[in-house]
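thought: fold this chain, then report.
action: predict
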Amino acid sequence: MIYLGADHRGFKLKEFLKSYLVQVGHRVLDMGNYHYDKDDDYPDFAVPVARKVNEDPENARGILLCGSGVGIDVAANRFKNVRSVLASSAEQARSSRNDVDTNILCLGADFLNEEEARKIVEVWLATPFSGEERHKRRIAKIESFFPPQPTP
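observation:
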């Protein structure tokens, strides 16, 4: 399952990506916003998506969008089993999956066009975690140095 969420600045791009993902056969659950609201706040959409991914971090995936991608990424990374990445290129998305086993992808809608965002999402979803020992070791170190907070 791919969980989607976006505030007003990411809303239009989220709608585009949702249509694309459904068209190519992915199971998608839109967690909001469901309409354009210039006064909404990105944590209101990051939290439900991150909670779902936190429940099944090995299988669930999330895609979050806001203007810069930064705020929504910070909010998502507050969850115990979430490894979120703010990606601005397909190569960065690939590396995040291969090396860090990210399970939420954040996009800055103000900085990407539809084709760039589609390519980033496509590569991120298609890239498996390498499982290499060095990457597992690094993830374990991150988790031990900075124990994740309990689910809010």
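thought: worth noting. The chain has a mean pLDDT of 94.
final: tokens above.
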